Amino acid sequence: MARCVIIGANGFIGSHLVDALVASGHEVTAFDRFSAGAATFQSDDVRVLVGDFANRADLAYAVRGQEVVFHLLSATTPITSEGDPSLDLRSNVGQTVDLLELCVEAGVSRFFFASTGGAMYSAPSDRPILETDLPTPVSPYAIGKLAIENYLRYFHVTHGLQSVAFRISNPYGTRQHPLRRQGLIPIAARQIAGSEPVVRYGDGRMVRDYIYVDDLVAMMLKVLNGSPKWGLYHLGSGTGLTVNEVLHCLSTVAGARFEIEERPVPPTFVDHVVLDTGRFTSEFGQVPMTPLEVGVQAVLDEAFAASRTLLDPTARAL
Q: The pTM is what?
């Protein structure tokens, strides 16, 4: 079992990864600002470090004595990076280079990075995209992710740091932060729970590859526990769904119709992205995928529970 630190451990993917690593017997350190207050992961057997990703001393302390680093933190989303393209360079790329330097100094054995698959490829494709296809990011968010992937290769060549980048499709599930403007399914679920119109960009024919967070974490653990041959893997369901198909599933599971508020498609949105996960499955085997309706039910249940809490002053006081 390995000593692991998760940078961004109280985030959406990070909190689920904490629980999965603890359940697998790994020694886990959770590094985050914990700005929302309490930890969102459920495991107790975790070393908690409150720190700032922008503080080099905090990062140095976090990676000291660790064997494995999972870097899951991002200070931006595809939407927020649009307003300030240099923000990604300052807050994500530059700080990740600092983190990599500190990992080398601390003798970290392996480094895992949560990149993006959904925003990495902009060229039209009528087939699932391979890791060998040319990345053509057009958003500052994805451009920054690709820059970090290149720095992973640099630190491998110059310092021997073993690293793997996960190009993740469109993850969804419980514990996604309500204020982050990212993820069709959680945003739509909150709008449905609040009896608001559901925002849809364009006519709903955009195709995405959605993966439930538990399935994503299971794939990540397979790579951690194995001997990866590559420095890059696509992690996704391998199945494409239109936005309209996802909204239909939300309506069916919720048992209610809702109004659609259509907005123009942002120029950096990609029309069709489905990731080929053959490299992963050929090496680590299949991970059973959670049916969309099952995952959507979990997200809706959480959204409705949060909505009831906001409306109940007694619940807020507890």
A: 0.94
